[in-house]
Amino acid sequence: MSAGPQVAIGLPVYNGAAFLDEAMASLCAQDFADLRIVVSDNASTDATPDILSAWAARDPRIDLHRQRENIGMIANFAFVRHTAQARWFMLAAHDDRWSPNFVSTLHTAATREPGCLLAVPQVVKTTIAGDEDLRFAVPAALAAAHGLARRLALLRWAQSGWIYGLIDRAALLRAQEATERFGHAWGNEFITLLPFLLDGRVAAANEAIYYQRQTPLSEARYKPRILADQRRLYRDFLREALRLLGESGLPAAQRAALLPALLRYSGRHAWKLRRLVLASLGLRRP
User: Fold this and answer.
1) What pTM was computed for the model?
2) Alpha-carbon span 18 to 96, nearest angstrom
3) How far apart are CA 200 and CA 193, in angstroms?
Protein backbone atom coordinates (compact mmCIF):
# COMPACT_ATOMS: atom_id res chain seq x y z
CA MET A 1 0.00 0.00 0.00
CA SER A 2 1.33 3.44 -0.94
CA ALA A 3 2.43 5.75 1.86
CA GLY A 4 1.04 8.70 -0.09
CA PRO A 5 2.82 11.67 -1.62
CA GLN A 6 5.50 13.67 0.16
CA VAL A 7 3.72 16.94 -0.59
CA ALA A 8 0.03 17.77 -0.89
CA ILE A 9 -1.18 21.06 -2.33
CA GLY A 10 -4.56 22.28 -1.09
CA LEU A 11 -6.55 24.65 -3.31
CA PRO A 12 -9.84 25.98 -1.86
CA VAL A 13 -11.78 28.01 -4.41
CA TYR A 14 -15.06 29.85 -4.81
CA ASN A 15 -16.00 31.58 -8.08
CA GLY A 16 -12.38 31.82 -9.17
CA ALA A 17 -12.86 31.36 -12.91
CA ALA A 18 -11.08 34.57 -13.91
CA PHE A 19 -7.60 33.35 -12.90
CA LEU A 20 -8.11 29.68 -12.06
CA ASP A 21 -6.83 28.24 -15.33
CA GLU A 22 -3.54 30.12 -14.92
CA ALA A 23 -3.18 28.97 -11.31
CA MET A 24 -3.83 25.32 -12.19
CA ALA A 25 -1.30 25.46 -15.02
CA SER A 26 1.30 26.83 -12.60
CA LEU A 27 0.62 24.13 -10.01
CA CYS A 28 0.66 21.30 -12.54
CA ALA A 29 3.98 22.58 -13.94
CA GLN A 30 5.84 22.06 -10.66
CA ASP A 31 9.08 20.11 -11.12
CA PHE A 32 8.54 18.14 -7.88
CA ALA A 33 7.06 14.83 -8.96
CA ASP A 34 5.74 13.31 -5.72
CA LEU A 35 2.75 15.55 -5.04
CA ARG A 36 -1.03 15.55 -4.95
CA ILE A 37 -3.32 18.53 -5.61
CA VAL A 38 -6.47 18.56 -3.47
CA VAL A 39 -9.07 21.01 -4.79
CA SER A 40 -12.28 21.98 -2.99
CA ASP A 41 -14.81 23.94 -5.02
CA ASN A 42 -17.01 25.75 -2.50
CA ALA A 43 -20.23 25.47 -4.54
CA SER A 44 -19.11 27.97 -7.18
CA THR A 45 -21.71 29.49 -9.48
CA ASP A 46 -19.38 30.60 -12.30
CA ALA A 47 -17.25 28.53 -14.70
CA THR A 48 -15.04 27.20 -11.89
CA PRO A 49 -16.48 23.63 -11.96
CA ASP A 50 -15.92 23.28 -15.71
CA ILE A 51 -12.33 24.55 -15.48
CA LEU A 52 -11.53 22.17 -12.64
CA SER A 53 -13.15 19.19 -14.35
CA ALA A 54 -11.03 19.81 -17.45
CA TRP A 55 -7.82 19.92 -15.40
CA ALA A 56 -8.76 16.82 -13.36
CA ALA A 57 -9.34 14.91 -16.59
CA ARG A 58 -5.84 15.62 -17.83
CA ASP A 59 -3.81 15.35 -14.60
CA PRO A 60 -4.34 12.30 -12.34
CA ARG A 61 -2.60 14.04 -9.40
CA ILE A 62 -5.66 16.29 -8.98
CA ASP A 63 -8.14 15.14 -6.31
CA LEU A 64 -11.27 17.21 -7.01
CA HIS A 65 -14.07 17.83 -4.50
CA ARG A 66 -17.18 19.97 -4.90
CA GLN A 67 -19.10 21.13 -1.84
CA ARG A 68 -22.90 20.78 -2.13
CA GLU A 69 -23.36 24.20 -0.52
CA ASN A 70 -21.06 27.05 0.38
CA ILE A 71 -19.43 26.15 3.71
CA GLY A 72 -17.56 29.43 4.14
CA MET A 73 -13.93 30.32 3.52
CA ILE A 74 -12.45 29.10 6.80
CA ALA A 75 -14.24 25.73 6.60
CA ASN A 76 -13.19 25.27 2.98
CA PHE A 77 -9.56 25.95 3.89
CA ALA A 78 -9.89 23.44 6.74
CA PHE A 79 -11.35 20.87 4.34
CA VAL A 80 -8.29 20.81 2.08
CA ARG A 81 -5.94 20.71 5.08
CA HIS A 82 -7.68 17.66 6.51
CA THR A 83 -8.10 15.91 3.15
CA ALA A 84 -4.48 16.36 2.06
CA GLN A 85 -2.80 13.28 3.51
CA ALA A 86 0.91 14.09 3.23
CA ARG A 87 3.86 14.94 5.44
CA TRP A 88 4.12 18.42 3.91
CA PHE A 89 1.26 20.69 2.97
CA MET A 90 1.13 23.73 0.70
CA LEU A 91 -1.87 26.04 0.53
CA ALA A 92 -2.63 27.51 -2.89
CA ALA A 93 -4.83 30.44 -3.90
CA HIS A 94 -6.88 30.23 -7.08
CA ASP A 95 -5.58 33.55 -8.46
CA ASP A 96 -1.82 33.20 -7.84
CA ARG A 97 1.22 31.66 -9.54
CA TRP A 98 4.40 29.88 -8.44
CA SER A 99 7.86 29.44 -9.91
CA PRO A 100 8.23 25.89 -11.36
CA ASN A 101 10.82 25.05 -8.69
CA PHE A 102 8.62 26.30 -5.85
CA VAL A 103 7.74 22.99 -4.20
CA SER A 104 11.08 21.30 -4.85
CA THR A 105 13.11 24.23 -3.50
CA LEU A 106 11.02 24.62 -0.35
CA HIS A 107 11.02 20.87 0.23
CA THR A 108 14.82 20.86 0.07
CA ALA A 109 14.99 23.81 2.48
CA ALA A 110 12.54 22.20 4.91
CA THR A 111 14.16 18.76 4.98
CA ARG A 112 17.68 20.18 5.22
CA GLU A 113 16.99 21.71 8.64
CA PRO A 114 16.18 19.21 11.41
CA GLY A 115 12.82 19.88 13.03
CA CYS A 116 11.75 22.49 10.48
CA LEU A 117 8.01 23.17 10.52
CA LEU A 118 7.68 25.84 7.84
CA ALA A 119 9.65 26.81 4.72
CA VAL A 120 8.83 30.23 3.28
CA PRO A 121 9.43 31.70 -0.20
CA GLN A 122 10.23 35.06 -1.68
CA VAL A 123 6.91 36.87 -2.16
CA VAL A 124 6.28 38.94 -5.27
CA LYS A 125 3.03 40.87 -5.21
CA THR A 126 1.57 41.48 -8.65
CA THR A 127 -1.11 43.63 -10.18
CA ILE A 128 -4.38 42.13 -11.35
CA ALA A 129 -2.81 41.81 -14.81
CA GLY A 130 0.03 39.76 -13.31
CA ASP A 131 2.77 42.39 -13.55
CA GLU A 132 5.24 42.70 -10.68
CA ASP A 133 4.37 45.37 -8.13
CA LEU A 134 6.28 44.71 -4.89
CA ARG A 135 8.98 42.16 -4.04
CA PHE A 136 9.63 40.84 -0.53
CA ALA A 137 12.74 38.67 -0.33
CA VAL A 138 13.43 36.93 2.97
CA PRO A 139 16.36 38.86 4.53
CA ALA A 140 19.65 36.99 4.57
CA ALA A 141 20.09 37.99 8.22
CA LEU A 142 17.28 35.63 9.16
CA ALA A 143 19.43 32.57 8.48
CA ALA A 144 22.06 33.79 10.93
CA ALA A 145 19.61 34.64 13.72
CA HIS A 146 18.90 32.16 16.50
CA GLY A 147 16.74 31.91 19.59
CA LEU A 148 15.02 35.11 20.66
CA ALA A 149 16.63 37.14 17.85
CA ARG A 150 15.19 34.73 15.27
CA ARG A 151 11.69 34.93 16.72
CA LEU A 152 11.83 38.73 16.78
CA ALA A 153 13.03 38.76 13.16
CA LEU A 154 10.24 36.42 12.05
CA LEU A 155 7.59 38.60 13.70
CA ARG A 156 9.09 41.66 12.04
CA TRP A 157 9.42 40.30 8.51
CA ALA A 158 6.40 38.01 8.25
CA GLN A 159 4.44 38.28 5.01
CA SER A 160 0.92 37.06 4.34
CA GLY A 161 2.41 35.03 1.48
CA TRP A 162 4.32 32.87 3.97
CA ILE A 163 1.13 30.96 4.70
CA TYR A 164 1.47 29.66 1.12
CA GLY A 165 4.86 28.13 1.87
CA LEU A 166 5.52 24.49 2.72
CA ILE A 167 4.16 23.55 6.15
CA ASP A 168 4.41 20.51 8.37
CA ARG A 169 0.84 19.25 8.08
CA ALA A 170 0.55 17.89 11.64
CA ALA A 171 1.74 21.22 13.05
CA LEU A 172 -0.65 23.06 10.74
CA LEU A 173 -3.63 21.06 12.00
CA ARG A 174 -2.66 22.03 15.55
CA ALA A 175 -2.36 25.68 14.52
CA GLN A 176 -5.77 25.47 12.87
CA GLU A 177 -7.35 25.35 16.33
CA ALA A 178 -6.21 28.93 16.88
CA THR A 179 -7.54 29.95 13.46
CA GLU A 180 -10.94 28.51 14.26
CA ARG A 181 -11.03 30.21 17.67
CA PHE A 182 -10.14 33.51 16.00
CA GLY A 183 -13.06 33.04 13.61
CA HIS A 184 -12.40 35.95 11.22
CA ALA A 185 -11.50 35.55 7.55
CA TRP A 186 -9.62 38.88 7.51
CA GLY A 187 -6.21 38.45 9.17
CA ASN A 188 -6.58 34.70 9.71
CA GLU A 189 -3.37 33.86 7.85
CA PHE A 190 -1.33 35.80 10.41
CA ILE A 191 -2.96 33.94 13.29
CA THR A 192 -2.24 30.63 11.56
CA LEU A 193 1.39 31.66 11.03
CA LEU A 194 1.96 32.91 14.56
CA PRO A 195 2.66 29.56 16.32
CA PHE A 196 5.35 28.83 13.71
CA LEU A 197 6.96 32.26 14.11
CA LEU A 198 7.03 31.89 17.89
CA ASP A 199 8.48 28.39 17.55
CA GLY A 200 11.26 29.68 15.30
CA ARG A 201 11.86 26.53 13.25
CA VAL A 202 11.33 28.29 9.93
CA ALA A 203 13.48 27.86 6.82
CA ALA A 204 13.56 30.21 3.84
CA ALA A 205 14.45 29.94 0.17
CA ASN A 206 14.38 33.04 -2.00
CA GLU A 207 14.83 30.87 -5.08
CA ALA A 208 11.22 29.74 -4.60
CA ILE A 209 9.00 32.59 -5.78
CA TYR A 210 5.35 33.06 -4.95
CA TYR A 211 3.49 35.48 -7.22
CA GLN A 212 0.66 36.84 -5.08
CA ARG A 213 -1.94 38.59 -7.19
CA GLN A 214 -3.52 41.64 -5.54
CA THR A 215 -7.22 41.60 -6.35
CA PRO A 216 -10.15 43.33 -4.62
CA LEU A 217 -12.03 40.04 -4.11
CA SER A 218 -10.86 39.21 -0.59
CA GLU A 219 -11.16 42.80 0.54
CA ALA A 220 -14.68 43.09 -0.85
CA ARG A 221 -15.79 39.83 0.77
CA TYR A 222 -14.04 39.85 4.14
CA LYS A 223 -12.65 43.27 5.16
CA PRO A 224 -14.65 44.76 8.07
CA ARG A 225 -16.26 48.06 7.13
CA ILE A 226 -17.79 49.44 10.29
CA LEU A 227 -15.96 50.53 13.41
CA ALA A 228 -17.59 47.97 15.71
CA ASP A 229 -16.44 45.10 13.46
CA GLN A 230 -12.93 46.54 13.22
CA ARG A 231 -12.69 46.79 17.00
CA ARG A 232 -13.92 43.22 17.35
CA LEU A 233 -11.35 42.01 14.82
CA TYR A 234 -8.47 43.75 16.61
CA ARG A 235 -9.66 42.53 20.03
CA ASP A 236 -10.01 38.91 18.89
CA PHE A 237 -6.66 38.96 17.07
CA LEU A 238 -4.80 40.40 20.05
CA ARG A 239 -6.48 38.00 22.47
CA GLU A 240 -5.53 34.99 20.34
CA ALA A 241 -1.99 36.28 19.81
CA LEU A 242 -1.48 36.68 23.57
CA ARG A 243 -2.93 33.23 24.15
CA LEU A 244 -0.51 31.69 21.64
CA LEU A 245 2.42 33.48 23.27
CA GLY A 246 1.34 32.11 26.65
CA GLU A 247 1.06 28.59 25.21
CA SER A 248 4.38 28.76 23.35
CA GLY A 249 6.37 27.04 26.11
CA LEU A 250 9.01 29.77 25.99
CA PRO A 251 10.66 30.94 29.23
CA ALA A 252 8.93 33.87 30.92
CA ALA A 253 11.82 36.22 30.11
CA GLN A 254 11.56 35.45 26.39
CA ARG A 255 7.79 35.86 26.42
CA ALA A 256 8.22 39.27 28.04
CA ALA A 257 10.85 40.25 25.46
CA LEU A 258 8.56 39.17 22.62
CA LEU A 259 5.51 41.03 23.90
CA PRO A 260 6.27 44.45 22.29
CA ALA A 261 6.96 42.73 18.95
CA LEU A 262 3.72 40.79 19.28
CA LEU A 263 1.78 44.00 19.88
CA ARG A 264 3.34 45.51 16.75
CA TYR A 265 2.53 42.32 14.83
CA SER A 266 -1.12 42.60 15.90
CA GLY A 267 -1.22 46.28 14.98
CA ARG A 268 0.12 45.61 11.50
CA HIS A 269 -1.76 42.48 10.58
CA ALA A 270 -5.14 42.74 12.32
CA TRP A 271 -6.14 46.39 12.24
CA LYS A 272 -3.94 49.41 12.88
CA LEU A 273 -4.56 50.54 16.45
CA ARG A 274 -3.94 54.18 15.54
CA ARG A 275 -6.76 54.04 12.98
CA LEU A 276 -9.12 52.54 15.54
CA VAL A 277 -8.33 55.24 18.08
CA LEU A 278 -8.79 58.06 15.56
CA ALA A 279 -12.04 56.57 14.28
CA SER A 280 -13.30 56.19 17.84
CA LEU A 281 -12.60 59.89 18.38
CA GLY A 282 -14.40 60.79 15.18
CA LEU A 283 -11.18 62.07 13.56
CA ARG A 284 -11.31 59.68 10.63
CA ARG A 285 -13.73 57.30 8.99
CA PRO A 286 -13.52 53.58 9.89
Assistant:
1) 0.91
2) 11
3) 11
